[in-house]
TrEMBL record:
Ranges for domain D-glutamate N-acetyltransferase-like N-terminal: 42-123
D-glutamate N-acetyltransferase-like C-terminal domain ranges (all copies): 131-326
SUPFAM superfamilies referenced in this protein's UniProt entry, alphabetically: P-loop containing nucleoside triphosphate hydrolases
Protein source organism: Pseudovibrio denitrificans
Protein name (database record): Uncharacterized conserved protein, NAD-dependent epimerase/dehydratase family
PANTHER family: DUF1611 DOMAIN-CONTAINING PROTEIN, GLL3100 PROTEIN
Amino acid sequence: MSISKPYLLFLGDVKDELAAKTAHGVLDWRPEWCLGQITLPGCKAHTSLPEMSLTEASEAGAKTMVIGCVNAGGVLPDHWIATIVDALNNGLDIAAGLHIQLGSIPAIAEAAAKNNRKLHDLRFTDFTFPTGKGEKRSGKRLLTVGTDCSVGKKYSAIALQRGLAERKISSDFCATGQTGILIAERGIAIDSVISDFISGAAEYISPATKDDHWDVIEGQGSLLHPSFAGVSLGLLHGSQPDAFVVCHEPTRSTMRGVSTPIPSIQEIIDLNIQFGRLTNPDIRCVGLAINTMMLSENHAKNLIEELSEEHKLPATDPVRFGTDPIIDHICAEFKLV
């Protein structure tokens, strides 16, 4: 995927920072691609980038406005359309990870055509995926899974892949969501694939490779989330992981967007092993990625130590404290140099 840079990040009028996770993700992992942000009245999220009008962004050299916010169902609110049209009129392309194609909205399609601008629909592909086969394939795969959605599966996967690469271990990051695709410029938005073909799509993005190569696959949802468990299960079966890392945000009492209580880390470990054995009998948990951004440093370190001892697994916050404990364990478990 080739999207013109630099980016202007659109945060809309979202009600919290987590709803702007696409903007934050792109900025955190690709800061050199980001120029500024634009918000609507009432927005409760902000990045470290300067606020810009569309005219200012265009004059500063922005090439694409990225819809950097998400909501349940990936819908496009009607009151965002005017800003998107104005961006096209100011010479910017648009990139969005919505469940609706930008070009299906007449005002946006007309403005794109009039200004000869591109519309990038990150969740859509022309590729037809086969059904999953569950057959053993060469290479190694690591999947990040979660006790909830939006707990750090993408960040952990990118950090772990970079940690492997730093040790000269052949590896790739496999994006399965719109933010990951923006960061990697490749991948499949797995939640937009028809349910019968989710496992096949997961097999496609993590194909047979050399025996010493690792695909690190971005997880989605959670096996116990009422809204997203189906996507999580299909991704687990298709990615056929040899190893998985459980991602957890310790300050939550209920899953995001629903009233369901957060499951325990052990429940998630047990379920992923139980269901993952269908396509990889040797699946194992190799670590815990604890999202401690809401905790003080001392509290975070103490909690990580407690969870590591409780589960007899390496634990860390991959962004805050690095990935070495988990990478060390992977190297020992799989006898990597």
